[in-house]
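User: Let's play a game. I give you a shape written as tokens, and you guess the letters that built it. Ready? Here's round one.
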């Protein structure tokens, strides 16, 4: 059966609610044949099934985070799944809700990169927005999984919003400070960074210096020995690939000066920064980002939230 006919069978079953017997009578075939047609439609990618789990949040931890860090909003996933992948998917769904609340015609959205940002973009529905624009605010990885890289994520979100996209045509990290400085002054890169400073909303992840969690290590930018050196220098995590100490201060380290992307001071001036990160192991990095004042809206899970609050001394809430 051709794709068009298979799609019709799938539409009868999944959209119109006809049972397989009714479809079999329409087609003049057996129920088992209809079952095979439905399986074939899924195998050919004509059917996508999405299960929307109700997202339970923890208002107590949300209020505690808002109070402890003067956040505008905190979204805390209650009873997070044990598996990291499923946990991140649920956080992406929460993050998509947080982003949708801010969508309006003419909005400029800045996007970083990483698995958390990927899950938010994946969960976003198609919402055409007149005059909107999506801007890549940090350079490209150029290695590893292209789906979590800035250019692809910016393109994907722009497609969902039916908006133009502005790419930052530069690598995330370059070999030397001199190269980084020269690239930042290149006309198209400088223009994109100037536009990035004017976004209304930025969607970012929060990186870790734990070798098991570091996206920079997975992408091949940093070796484990370099991560160890960063930790020895006081780094607990990163925001926009800039290593931070426990209080959220950027380290005076060559790595930070080799990054091509929106500056941390400029990030602070963006009206709304939504950060998505979860898991207790990321608590030091999340706390650093909050202490540094880089986040207005935090999307996290109950385990990470409790760990962050315990580190902050808000033990009554943890």
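Assistant: Ready! My guess for every position:
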């Amino acid at each position: 059966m051709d794709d068009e006919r298979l799609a019709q069978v799938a539409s009868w079953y999944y959209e119109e609610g006809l049972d397989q017997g009714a479809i079999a009578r329409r087609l003049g075939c057996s129920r088992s044949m209809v079952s095979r047609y439905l399986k074939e439609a899924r195998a050919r990618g004509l059917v996508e099934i999405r299960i929307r789990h109700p997202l339970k949040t923890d208002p107590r931890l949300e209020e505690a985070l808002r109070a402890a860090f003067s956040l505008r909003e905190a979204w805390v996933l209650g009873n997070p799944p044990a598996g990291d992948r499923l946990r991140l998917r649920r956080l992406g769904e929460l993050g998509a809700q947080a982003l949708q609340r801010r969508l309006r015609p003419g909005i400029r959205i800045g996007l970083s990169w990483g698995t958390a940002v990927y899950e938010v973009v994946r969960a976003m529905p198609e919402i055409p927005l007149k005059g909107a624009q999506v801007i890549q605010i940090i350079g490209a990885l150029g290695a590893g999984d292209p789906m979590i890289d800035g250019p692809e994520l910016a393109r994907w979100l722009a497609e969902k919003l039916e908006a133009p996209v502005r790419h930052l045509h530069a690598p995330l990290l370059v070999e030397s400070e001199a190269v980084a400085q020269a690239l930042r002054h290149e006309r198209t890169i400088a223009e994109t960074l100037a536009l990035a400073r004017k976004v209304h909303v930025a969607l970012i992840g929060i990186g870790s210096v734990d070798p098991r969690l570091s996206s920079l290590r997975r992408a091949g930018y940093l070796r484990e020995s370099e991560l160890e050196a960063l930790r020895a220098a006081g780094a607990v995590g990163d925001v926009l690939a800039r290593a931070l100490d426990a209080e959220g201060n950027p380290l005076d380290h060559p790595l930070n000066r080799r990054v091509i992307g929106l500056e941390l001071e400029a990030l602070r001036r963006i009206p709304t920064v939504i950060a998505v990160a979860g898991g207790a192991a990321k608590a030091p990095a999340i706390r650093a980002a909050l202490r540094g004042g880089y986040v207005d809206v935090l999307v996290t899970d109950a385990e990470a939230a409790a760990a962050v609050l315990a580190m902050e001394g808000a033990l009554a809430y943890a």
